Amino acid sequence: MIDILKVKTELLLEETKTSGHAPLKFICNDNNLYYCKYLVDFDPNEINCLAYEIVSHYLLKALNIPTPDIALVEVSEGTLDKSKIVKNRRLRVNHICFGSKGIDPSEEINEFETCTNKREYNRIVNPEDVIKIALFDLWINNVDRGRFINPGFNYNLLVVRSGSKRKIMAFDHAFVFGGVQQIGIFNSKMPFENQDKFHQSDFYKSFIRYMDEEEIIEIVDNFIPLLKISHKEVIDAIIFQLADIWKLTPNLADRIQEYLFCEERIEKVKAVILNSKSIY
């Protein structure tokens, strides 16, 4: 049974400077730091992107892909310091945000980062998850990770360090299901999108040079059947809990399930990633 954690804000540290949601860094009443997102644009339908974050989180967990913990974060009285806010001016006391729990120590993979040698590759403790994230992004149509931001790429990947080793985690999934442009209209009959995705980025291409083709095939063959399992129970439970909090587009849970359970889409996802090794 999924029960989304709920916390309340206690102290606003800062608004992060990003081109997207510009998350607010709040210390909350469970003594943890959360990166909190709300609406920054005028279109109220963009609240769906916060639901996408939560759906993606629980799907990643079900698929055993590392991702930060999350919570629904309620803004408490006296914690909304407007002097620290530029983009999140629409946020009010008692509004509920999506919160991604901070991980310390960690750092983002920057837009220019590549895997330059075998030694760097061997420092990654979960190389198979790089392939799984590429598969996941195609399956769920993530239009953000792998996006070209001249002269680099947007990765939305965290690196958590433990001594000399590094663990890769996926975060920031507000722009899945085709992102803002397809809110309320995405469906299983829409064309399969495989451009401007993670598997075409410099980091991915540099990383898989150090993987054997047989290893990639094994990862893909073991992962694809997990996408063919119905995730309806998970999706329904999440949207049910969010329906009274945010005004979401009609039939969202059904459309997500139909979109993800499309066998033709899943087979195309498989073919693209299996072909990526031979291309790069």
Short note summarizing the structure:
This protein is of the alpha+beta class.
Describe the structure.
The protein is globular. It contains eight helices and ten strands. The longest helix has 17 residues, at 263-279. With 280 residues, the chain is α+β, with helices and mostly antiparallel strands. It is 33% helix and 18% strand. Helix 6 runs antiparallel to helix 7.
What topology emerges from the helices and strands here?
Layout (H helix, E strand, L loop, with lengths): L5 E10 L8 E5 L4 E5 L10 H15 L7 E5 L21 E6 L4 E3 L9 H6 L4 H13 L7 E2 L2 E2 L3 E6 L2 E6 L31 H7 L4 H15 L4 H11 L9 H9 L2 H17 L1
Parallel strand pairs: 1-4
Antiparallel strand pairs: 1-2, 2-3, 3-5, 4-5, 6-9, 7-8, 9-10
Features:
three-stranded antiparallel β-sheet, single chain, 18% strand, alpha+beta, 33% helix, 280 residues
Tally the helices: what do you get?
Answer: 8
The fraction of residues assigned to DSSP E strands is 15-25%
Give the strand tally.
Answer: 10
Report the sheet with the most strands, covering strand number, pairing sense and barrel closure.
5 strands, mixed, barrel
- Write the H/E string, N to C: EEEHEEEHHEEEEHHHHH
Stretches where pLDDT falls below 50 for ≥5 residues? none
Strand order of the largest sheet: 1-2-3-5-4
Mean pLDDT across all amino acids: 96
Q: Helix content range of the residues, please?
A: 25-40%
Instruction: Choose one word for the global shape.
Output: globular
